[in-house]
Each structure stands twice: as structure tokens, then as C-alpha cells.
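Hi team,

Filling in the usual template for the complex we talked about on Friday. All components are listed, including any nucleic acid strands or ligand strings, so the model treats them as one assembly.

SUBMITTER: L.P.
PURPOSE: interface mapping
COMPONENTS: four
RESIDUES: 1396
SEQUENCES:
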Amino acid sequence: MQFFSDNSALVHPKIMEAIAKANHVDAAYGADKWSAQLNEKFGEIFGAEIIVHPVSTGTAANCLALAAMTQPYQGILCHEEAHIVVDECGAPGFFTAGAQIIPIGGDGAKINPHMLTHIISAIRDDVHQVQPACLSITNASEYGMAYTPSEIRELADIIEKNNPANNGRRQGKIGLHVDGARFANVVAMGNYSAAELTHLSGVDALSFGCIKNGGMNAEALIFFNTDLAKASEYRRKRAGHLHSKGRFMAAQLLAMIEDDLWLENAHAANHAAQIIASACGDRLLYPVQVNEIFLRLTADEAQKLRNQGFDFYDWGVNGARLVTSWHHSPADVTPLANAISDLGEFQAS
Amino acid sequence: MQFFSDNSALVHPKIMEAIAKANHVDAAYGADKWSAQLNEKFGEIFGAEIIVHPVSTGTAANCLALAAMTQPYQGILCHEEAHIVVDECGAPGFFTAGAQIIPIGGDGAKINPHMLTHIISAIRDDVHQVQPACLSITNASEYGMAYTPSEIRELADIIEKNNPANNGRRQGKIGLHVDGARFANVVAMGNYSAAELTHLSGVDALSFGCIKNGGMNAEALIFFNTDLAKASEYRRKRAGHLHSKGRFMAAQLLAMIEDDLWLENAHAANHAAQIIASACGDRLLYPVQVNEIFLRLTADEAQKLRNQGFDFYDWGVNGARLVTSWHHSPADVTPLANAISDLGEFQAS
Amino acid sequence: MQFFSDNSALVHPKIMEAIAKANHVDAAYGADKWSAQLNEKFGEIFGAEIIVHPVSTGTAANCLALAAMTQPYQGILCHEEAHIVVDECGAPGFFTAGAQIIPIGGDGAKINPHMLTHIISAIRDDVHQVQPACLSITNASEYGMAYTPSEIRELADIIEKNNPANNGRRQGKIGLHVDGARFANVVAMGNYSAAELTHLSGVDALSFGCIKNGGMNAEALIFFNTDLAKASEYRRKRAGHLHSKGRFMAAQLLAMIEDDLWLENAHAANHAAQIIASACGDRLLYPVQVNEIFLRLTADEAQKLRNQGFDFYDWGVNGARLVTSWHHSPADVTPLANAISDLGEFQAS
Amino acid sequence: MQFFSDNSALVHPKIMEAIAKANHVDAAYGADKWSAQLNEKFGEIFGAEIIVHPVSTGTAANCLALAAMTQPYQGILCHEEAHIVVDECGAPGFFTAGAQIIPIGGDGAKINPHMLTHIISAIRDDVHQVQPACLSITNASEYGMAYTPSEIRELADIIEKNNPANNGRRQGKIGLHVDGARFANVVAMGNYSAAELTHLSGVDALSFGCIKNGGMNAEALIFFNTDLAKASEYRRKRAGHLHSKGRFMAAQLLAMIEDDLWLENAHAANHAAQIIASACGDRLLYPVQVNEIFLRLTADEAQKLRNQGFDFYDWGVNGARLVTSWHHSPADVTPLANAISDLGEFQAS
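RESULT (copied from the run log):
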């Protein structure tokens, strides 16, 4: 059984079924009944009037959101270990036509509010310095750490209060984007409302993850600040992310939220992670909040686990990363938990 | 029955089946058995060692190919009515980071060799002028006209002979790209080999269309000049076109060429177009070679056809465009052919 | 005596003097008395509140203006033979991060209003087509033809009336830019006011030429639509066009307009051109309105002139281009005029 | 007397003289005797065959060099406080069309070799991570700290040994660029040869500063790796940095190196800085190696100095930055040194 990443997990049967159903109609470029329902159906989930743009990867969702907020001569505030910085081959620079990353530190790949305040307040509003146009956070973070609604609100307040534009030359507020590749896992974990994790806490746009949660090839770029959506339609087209048979993407997204499938899947993944985490004790490098486990593991111990048929990524020296997904049942992961317990106390080799 | 475009046609059952089968495996980013077979299986179709990159839209395939050949300060030779110029919202400028379109004329949206020679030979090799880096042709063209292998070879010879780089400063040959959104229809129509329409005639890269021919969301960017493929992997990733569950795209592409499904579908679409064309007589604006019919039609006549349940795009004043696809059977289109015949002689209103 | 181009002419003594004077002060990035006067002094010339950005080349002035009006996913309407299209190595694509050129035809490199109307009115406001964001005209044109105020107004009305944005999705008016590398020559020729050739006729931004008219390395990018100026300050900096010793550029620009030096120089260049034109008779390919002469000339005739010490560019077969500048006195050009007269009637060889 | 920056200092009389002389010739775009001598004359300074491109700002020189080494999908290794990161409004992202900054730490804004090794060796050669294409260092650094030839060689060895490309996919070596806005000050300070500070230590391109050292508007972009120069000619043109009257830039650059004026000016600036530094004692935040002094200074102390007619930039709380230039004579700065001495011991307020 492998725990490399949820990004390759099987597609949920209900999603496959929805895709099959969407094949009985002939309509191009979103002129279909599935695409037509996206704004309303997702609007119900978020309790707001929103605009939803389906795209086929998280990178596209993230960077179209950033491009909608950021001019080429501006900057993107984000964690120095954010996915957009370390795992997308420079996609933000591509979609924004050269906007500069302004990296912020913080534990567990979560932005430290003090560091954010320090950096943003030091930016002079003159033409020599890159002016920040947006803040992008990842919820859950690269290390599986979740932001609470109040933590998001705190960051939103910082960028509002310290916006260099308030001093003069640059117009407009600094936008707030959430990379929500594992947004469902956060909602499920904290029993939060989708609203309080987003627009109620100052979020302008969300990359709503579907693929890691049982989808095939559809993510939802959601604009709470609907003024940002218009230009984004052009950007999506010229980036090659407008599908002529978009009905298959829309159908996946609708199936994902129907009867709360997205939460059901997220709960399953989170639960599987907790079972494994419960066996890790002091081995845990970060508290397990959603579906990622980072643990101390020597090369020998890793080999032992692999010999028993469990596979995963090494994480530096004496470390490992395991990710669970919707299709990992308790029965699937219990043997792994037991195998980890059997390793006994961690002792760095 | 609608004839707006083949880009929205139903997905062929064999493709749906292949997608379903690809769901029984968990492997990310092309580390799956389907992706592993692409180069070899497509290489057999083209009789060459090639590299295949699956992407989810024709715009992505076209523009990644252009970006692989063109530096930001160079130019793209193509027909002034090419899809990349008039129908992709400036995507070439986005993927190449600003390369300039150098438009060429020609009937039926096919490049006129004399016009190409005239324009390219007038470009001085100095820093003031945009130096052409590639020529992109569309086969079949926007008006459903096909280039023969010898016509492609003629164009390839022109860009080779007149390459300003030969005079000095700029290095490398001018690349040749084929937008093959309807490549299958050309092969099927002319009973050509895939090889003679591409690398045997000097083609470096091909956008091999799958979606318009019964696929769901996969096109194949094929590099015959495999040196171009390396950098393109990075570009594909940062453009958000590398799918974590790429196995579903690879599976579609393999199913499309298995047992020549791609040609079977193309033959069906071409045949349906011929049935309609045979009823058009003098109404035809262009000879019908593949699956697009452009015909003279007054507003009244168009209304008559729509009243009988046939729908399509108007094409300027007194004109209409009809596109057939793999799922239009002779039984489907014969009524339309009869309806057109019943209109009698065309008389401009 | 050479007539290749006014772009290399000597710098006028008064400009050299102004540069020397600006060396007695130490102040960086426009915090000097010369830079401080630009908006006011140029505002007097144009009878309007304007913002002036000094830059060191016409390409920078033109493309910063275009970038201020055009998003990367939009288009630039301009003549197919405009300097920005054929002589700036794709600079518009660079400064706008990929905006597409939408070429328009017209005699003498002046935009034909009917062709502009035809092209712009055919653009659908959908995401597949590049939406025009600005129209750039060159006054005087590449062939030395001038637009009158009413001709400019006619074009301004066309882009206003046919703006696809009026139908919906895209916001804002289409901007109007004038490449005025030889703007002074037009004002001098037609005895127009600078105002009627620009903001009074709907112009948003002007590249005010100084270098071809006796300057050293300063052009003035003038914003009549001052809302465009703010973001342009950032673009100018990141393009490397903000000079720390900008006082030397500001001093040139002020000296150029002081006591109407700009018009004096332009009159001299225009007058020299008229003296030469008067000797060309039927040889003229275009009427000589400012300081460019295009004439029929066989290779033998060209050689004869060169043997007498006159040099210039050939213009295709049996053609030549001569450009006069501020430092060509009547005494300088009369011998050339005589030499051309001595050639007698033109007879194509 | 002001000590804000050397970037606004007066232009040296010999440079003004050279500019005046260059006005007696009419030749465009580098077809003049001054431009023709650049490669040879600068080649003598560096003891190598080089190619010199004059540009009008340091930002243009730096970013054209980076663009010559870096594809849009690659990365730029540099100090997190480098001028290209914090003071050029994102220019690297503009000139490279989106390349990502990969920030490195180190004291005094000099790259720490261990940190460089740590970061570069952690980059996997896969498409998800930005692959470094060049390393840019600033000599002297933003804090006036100089790299010795052996320190530069150490960094060159690190990027050579740890080049991810050596593992596979990416081709070519990682380029090494030096931002030498104050290169002359380093040569003068250490009595180094220009060669050992550049190509003999693995440097591919240098931004040779002239403006901060008594020039008006010319910097020299020098390619030691001459293969990089060809494409850069196109980039320079489309960036609006090719001057039609480039002879005035070339003349400045030649005058700057004639009879070692560049070193004479740098020695004067360095000497003035030493006089001031000698009065600062424990106040110094960094050792003064070239012409920048960073010292502890309370607000009251700063006011006292300003009351005596000395002006400079505050540097955070209780800090100040003073920069000397070629035209600061010992007689000019001695009063400042005395005034600082009179402040007595520093005591944080």
C-alpha cells in the first residue's frame, strides 16, 4: 500500500459516474447544464455570491488567482516553502508575467504574523521596491498544518493595515488568496464552515481542491471578490485552461459537493492519518491535523516498513512523509500503524 | 441535431472505457503504464522515435510547441487567420513571453508559398526586425483545407532557404509546427501516412488532435525534433498542464490510436461531411475536404433549416459553417442534406 | 553629406549647453529643478494638465505607453507597417508581456479608417478573440505622412463607437497613443497646435520625440490621461529606464521647448526636405509633408549621387529614402537638389 | 554637503569633454568610431576577448545579463538583499519573462558559501522545482563589502559542482554574473586586476559601473562568455536600450577607462570614505572597504550632523548610511569626520 501522495489517488466512483453521465450531451465551452449550476451550487456551500472557474490543475487555479490580483511589476507575499514557490516550476512568474515572490517565514509552512508584519511594513511605497499586490496562504499548509478562521483574519488585517498603497501611489487593497488543495480536509478537521475559512475572514479567491480528494482532473477556482473574475476568463483561455468539453469538469465538481462527498472523503483521509499518527508518538515532526504525517524514521526503519509493503517519500535524513487519501480505509492503514509501533522508540542512527 | 463544432462531440465509448480502466491504479505524474507507452505506441504510428507530451487542450499543445521553438524576442510565421492568431486569446504571446506574430496570407487559410517567400526574404537580419523562429501551419486549415505532404515540404524548403539566420546573427533553423486539431481527418481523407504529413516533410512538432475526434480532455504534443522536448517539460509544468493523474490522459491517447480508432472516427466525420456537401452544389464556399462545410445560405434559408432542427453557426452574411464529427452517422446527416437540397438554388437575398 | 536618418543627427548646441549646466547639481532620481518643471512647462505647450516621463529612447516611450493601456491578454491596434511592428524587435510584446498586434492597412503607413472600422467591428467580445485595448498611430507616419487633427478625431471616434467592451465583458475605453518621433515636424508643417493634434482629438498618451530633432538621449512620454501615469512609473523603473541622473534628460527636454527650439529645428528639417522634393518631380513616391523623401531612383542614378558625396538608404528596387534633419541648411541640400534635377526624367532600368 | 549616494554625483569633466567631442560626427546605432573601440579597449583592461554592450542604467545591464543566462522557467540565485531583489522593482522578472529569484543569505549582503551549497544541493532536477540558471553577486555588495577573487572562485566552484543539470535534464552550466555598480571601487581598494575579479574566477558577465563613478548615463554590460552576447543584442533593442546616438555612451565609457580615470575616481571615493570611517570607531556597522559607511547614529546625533550641513540617509533606527563619491575631496569630508568625532561615544537612545 502506498502513501506517496493523495494527488494520485483513485477517482471516487461517484465522480466516475458523473463523468459518464456528462457524455450524453453535446455542448461546448461551458454552455451545458453542469457548468451552468456551478456558481449557484458552490455559492450554497460558501453562503455567498461567487464565481467558479473550473480548471484542470491546482497550479492553474493558484496562478490564475494570483494573476487576477497582481500586475507584472508587483509582488506576491507567501510562505517561503509554499507550493507556489517550491513545487510549481515558477508558475506564478509565468502567469503574472514576472511578479516577484516576497517570501515570509513561519513554522509548519504557516505564515508567521509577526514576520509578515515586519516584512510588509518595511516596504517603502516607491518605485524601487516591489509593491505587494496579494498574499497567498496554503490551507492546509505543505506540512499539513491548518489555519483557523481567526488566524486567517489576523493575516487579512495585517495586509490591510500595512498596505503601502495606503500611503499613496499604489491603488487597491492587497488581495488574499488561499491555496486549498486540501481545503476539504481543513473544513472536515475543524468542523468549520467553508464561509468562515474564506470570505468571512477576508479571502478574495480560493483554489478549491478536488483532485487530491477523489476527483480526476478538475479544480475549482473560486472568486469571492467577483470583480476579479472577468479578466480571469481571458487569462484562463490564453493559458489553455478553458476546455471545450468543460462539462466533464463541471460534472466532477458538482458531484464532489453533492451530499457532501467532499467532506466524507476528507474525513476518511483525515481519519486514516490519525490512525497512523496515533502509532507515531514522539516520532511526529508536526502535529497531524489533516492527512499528512511527517515522522522521524531511520533508513533502516524505512526499509523495514517498505519490506512490509508500505511505501512513501523519505523526508530528508531520518525523516519520512506519508499522505493518506479518501480511499485509505482504517483496515488499510492499521497494519501500517502496527508496523510503526513495532519499530519502538526512535533513535537517530 | 447540431453541427456547431466537433470540439463538443460526445466522447467515444472506447475512450470512456479506457478512462474507467485507468482508475484501478494509483500512480502520479506519468509514472504509470499508460504514460510509459506513449512514445513507443505513437512512434509506431509515425514510424519514428518521438516524444509525446499529453496536454488537456489544443491551445496548450500549440503554444507549448511554439514556445519550444521561439525565444521571446523572435517571431512566429503563420497564416493571418490561423487558430493561434484569431481563436486563442493571444496564447502564443503568453506561452512565448511576447514573441510576435508575423502574419501570412493565402486562400482557404492555407499559407501561400509566394507570400511566405516574399515576407520572409524581406526580413533583414538586424536587431530592429523580429527574426522568425518558427512557422506554424494548420492541417486541416480553419476552412477545412488540407495541406498535402508536398505542399508542406515546399513550405519547409522556403523557411530553410530564406532563413535570415543563414546570413549571420541568429542561430538554428526555423522550426515547423503543425496544428493538427483535425490531423486525423487529413490522414483519413488523403490516405496519407502520418509520417509523410510530418517529419518526412520537415515538421518538428505536431499538435495531434484527440478531443475533436472523440476524446475527452487529452491532446498529444508530439516532438519529432526531440531536442525540443526537454525544456518543454518545464514549460508544461509551470503552465499548469502537467496532470498528477496524467494516466487518464495517456489512456485516452492510447485508446485513440489502438486499432486505428482515430482514423475510423475521422472517416466517419469526413463521410458525414461529404453527404452534406453533395447536397450543397454551388453553395459551397470552399471544397469540402475533411469535416467542415462552409456554404452560402440566406438568413431565411438558415431559419428554415433551424426550424427542421438543424443548428450551426452563421458565417458572416449569407453564409454558414457546419462541422460534422465522429458520431454523425449517415442516417443523422442525410435529412440535413435533403433539407439543403430542398432549398434549391442559392439566391443572395 | 548623409541623409540616412535624423536619428543620428548632431545634438543642437543649446541642448549641449543645457546638459553642461545640469552638471552643477547633485540630485538623484528626478529630485532636481529640471525634472520638477517638466509637467508644468510641457503642460503650457499642450494647454493641459499632463504628466511627463523622460525616457532615453523612442522604443521605451512607445512601449511604456502601450503597456500603460494594455493588459497582457489584450491587443494593440496599429498600422501593419508601424515602427512598433517592424522596427522595434517586438518591443510591444516585451513591455506588455505578450499583448498581440492587430495590424491595420492604409496608404503611406497611415491607418485607413474603413479598414480600422472593418477589423474592430468584427471582433466578438468573447474570450477566444484578442480584445483591443489601444490604438497606436504614428504622426508623422513611417512614410512621412501626417495625420490632421480631424483625421485623428475620426479614428478616436471609431474606437470609441466600436469598442467591444461596450457590449459587455471588457471594461474601459480603448486608449489612443501617438508615436510622435517626428511630432514636431507635423506641428511645424501644419502650423497646428500641439493640443489639437493630441488631447483635443482624443489622444491619451504621446511619445514626444526629441532625439531626432536635435536631442541627445531624451524623449518625453506624455500622459494626457494622467490616470495612466501612476503604474507607468513602476514599469519605467523595472525596465531600466529611470535614470539616477535624470536631470540631464529633463534639462534636454526643457531646452528643446524653450523659445520653441523644437519647432525651429523641425522647420529647418522640413524646409530642407522641401528643397530636395522640389527637384524630384514625378520621382516622388509619397508627397513630402515633413522631413522624409521617398523617390524613384535607379541603381545607376543612386550611384551617381553617391559619387557626388550624397548618401542615403536604398528603398527596395529603384527606390531611395532620404531624411533631412535640423542641421541640414538650405546650402547643404541645394547641391543635392541640383544633382537630382540633373538626373532628368526617371526611367525604370 | 550631501552623502546620499554616488548615483547622483557630478559627471567628471573628462566625461563631459568626451561627450562634447562625440557631437561632431553623425553616425547611428553604434556605427561610430567610439563604439567600434569598446571591445578592444575594454578587452585590454580585462586581458581577454570580450564583448561590450553599452546601456544607460545599471538595472538594464544587470537584467540583460540575467536574461542572457536564464530561461523564463529557470531561477536566479542571488543574495536575499541584492540590488536586483530589493531595489529594481522586479526588473529581473521583467527581463527574463518570469524567472524566479532563489534567495541566499549571508552577512554584509555577501553570499554565504555554505548557505549557497545547502540551497543549491537541495534542488532536485525535476520539473516541479525551479532549476537555477545563474548566480548573481554584487561586488561591492549593498553594504560596501567586497568579494576577493578567491571568494568568487569558491562560489563559482560551488555552482559548477552542484549544478542539478549535471544529474540530467537541464543543459549547460550555471552562469555567473557580477553586478559591478561599484566594481571600480573594489579594484581600487584591493589593488586587484580586473581579470582576477571576473573571468579568471569564473565570471561570465559583468555590469561594469560607470554612472556612480563619474559618468552621466552609460554602463557597460561586459560578456566574457561571448556566446551570451548575440541574443542579448536583440533583447537590448526590444528593451529600448539601444541608442541611435550610442556614440555618446561609448565616448563616456572610453573616457572612463582612458588613463585609468575609473580607478582614480574610485580611489578618491574610497579615500574619502576612509577619512570618515576613521572617525566612527565603534559606530561602524560594517567594515568600510569601499565608499559606503554604515554607522550607529541616534536621531539626535543625526540632527546635529544635519544642522552642520551634512545630509545622508537614515538606516533603520539609530543608524545611518553615508556614501562618498569621486568628487568628495579630503577637504570636503574632513569636517564631517570631525563632526562625527565630536559626537563622542555612541549610546543608544
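MY TAKE: The first strand of chain A starts at residue 51 and ends at 55. Chain A touches chain C through 21 residues (CB under 8 Å).

Thanks, L.
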